[in-house]
Amino acid sequence: MDEQQLIDQTTEALDLWAMVEIFGHTKVAGRLTERKIGVNVMLQVDVPKGDKEFSHSRLFGPAAIFSINPTTEAWCRKWTASQAQYERSPLPYVPEAPKQLNEVQGPDDDVTLFDN
Predict the structure, then answer these.
(1) Buried b vs exposed e over 3-34: b needs ≥16 C-beta within 10 Å?
(2) Whole-angstrom Cα distance, residue 63 to residue 100?
């Protein structure tokens, strides 16, 4: 029996409601499960919306997880509802036009600076 099989047999699959802290800075509450992608395991957080739905899902590598705090579905739904007032999109912001570099004369004529 190789080492990989031994690890898989003794590992419990995650399926719980929790507050997950990412790198100790970002908090995400929801249903936490595991997803195997290739040979890697990712942790998926399904973020609740309303009483029965989910808003979106996020996948994290185990190294990004600072802490997992198990809790209840009711608490996670209440917490995410309170966070909705901040109106943060789950998707990254994409500007309409990319920022352009312009040549600006500085103390050194050879310097190119960002246009603010």
Answers:
(1) eeeeeeeeeeebeebbbbbbeeeeebbbbbee
(2) 35
67/13: higher pLDDT: 67
Number of Cα atoms under 13 Å in the Cβ half of residue 40: 9
Long-range contacts of 31-35 (CB under 8 A, 24+ apart): 31/73, 31/76, 32/68, 35/59
| Model pLDDT for residues 72-106, shown as the tens digit of each residue | 999 999 999 888 777 666 666 666 666 665 665 55
